[in-house]
Amino acid sequence: MGDKLIIDVTKGVWIDQRWLQEAGLGPRLQIEMKKGEICIKPAIDSDEVKEISPNGWDVFKTLGDNAPIGSLKNASKHHDKYLYGKNS
Q1: Looking at residue 34, what is its pLDDT?
Q2: Is 67 inside a domain boundary?
Q3: Rounded distance, CA 64 to CA 55, Å?
Q4: Beta bridge partners of 41
Q5: What element of type H or E holds 56?
Q6: What pLDDT, on the 0 to 100 scale, is given for residue 33?
Q7: Is residue 56 situated within a structural domain?
């Protein structure tokens, strides 16, 4: 493709569907805005998202296995205090 178009923006920008098709972006778009640039990419369909590994839950369940027992007094009652430093 390589087409360039310089425009003066007064009300908004319209991107012709032909350009989107030629760029291979597909029917759904993801728009990312950063200082000084706007990037348009194809949106990731939920079908394309990788499946969660069942092994991940096994790892998650073992996270507290090595925790010292009884280190926090009334951990359930003072949950916010221990996790976030806030009094409940």
Answers
A1: 92
A2: no
A3: 16
A4: 30
A5: helix 54-61
A6: 92
A7: yes
Instruction: Indicate the number of domains in the chain.
Output: 1
What pLDDT, on a 0 to 100 scale, did the predictor assign at position 39? 92
Find out whether 42 and 26 touch, Cβ atoms under 8 Å.
Answer: yes
With the CA atoms of 52, 58, 61 and 64 taken in that order, what torsion angle do they form, in degrees rounded to the nearest 10?
A: -120
What residue type is 65 in one-letter code? D
- Binning the chain into helix, strand and coil, the percentages to the nearest 5 are 25, 15, 60
Residue 78, in any domain of the structure: no
50: left (phi over 0), alpha (psi -120 to 50) or beta: beta
31, 3, 32, 33: which is closest to 16 by C-alpha?
3
* Residue-range definition of the domain harbouring residue 54: 1-61
Which segments in the chain show pLDDT lower than 50? none
Looking at the domain assignment, is residue 73 inside a domain?
Answer: no
